Amino acid sequence: xxxxxxxxxxxxKNRQQFYISIFDxxxxxxxxxxxxxxxxxxxxxxxxxxxxxxxxxxxxxxxLQFLMPNQYDWQxxxxxxxxxxxxxxxxxxxxxxxxxxxxxxxTKKQVHTYINRxxxxxxxxxxxxxxxxxxxxxxxxxxxxxxxxxxxxHLNVIAVPYVACQLRFMSLLGDFxxxxxxxxxxxxxxxxVDECTNIILNLRKQCEKPILVASDSITFLQHISQFxxxxxFPDKTVHIDCIGNEDDNVYMKPFIDFFLLSKxxxxxxxxxxxxxxxxxxxxxxxxxxxxxxxxxxxxx
Length: 300
Description:
By secondary structure, the chain is an alpha/beta fold. Helices cover about 35% and strands about 15% of the residues.
């Protein structure tokens, strides 16, 4: 991969050293939460080692459309990223790869990194620091004016303290294609929707607050919105690792959900049957240290 995508050169060009977190069309990056986990892990490592950190998040959208630098400028400037193989070490730390490929690397070259895991607790332990995920998130990111405007519009609709439920159906309800997950038969879809609905309505009784429901299924959001004190914003959602060339508003939806979840009094992740135990709401909770609970039911 290194020689396929870089210009060949026998000699270094004396480029400044950066560790660059990359999400582009050359490799899958998993979902939004995974990508943010990877960026924050690499930023934490760079902060510990006093190395400059940059990010190139350009596929299937440019991250700068939705998140902009806050206290630390991670934006990659023109000319900073070397195109020459002699200047670069490629590092892939994805899936279940351990962080030791990163921590054992000794180089003065630029390190172009595909990373999508949270190694913060490992780095804290190894290097004797105590970084919080939310702390580093706020150092790196703030919403763009475009995203901030949409968030404020949604928060004005909610207007009261709320708890939040998040549900990750993937392709089970037939809303969109995700990897190789087949949709459920119609009767099983109904049973799944009914069980998830009952869980949310029971939570509504316990919490005595409005419940914001966030989900990757517009079908479920449209269904649950009929109930009193249930708040939804049922816009189209896709998995960003599976579908490209969508409208900006579609790609904005997970960012809106992420920030709305982070402002709740508590977040629940509901998992029934074959649904996915998403880390998206867990990491939304970490932004502002919101209490988080996962509710699991084995069958629909």
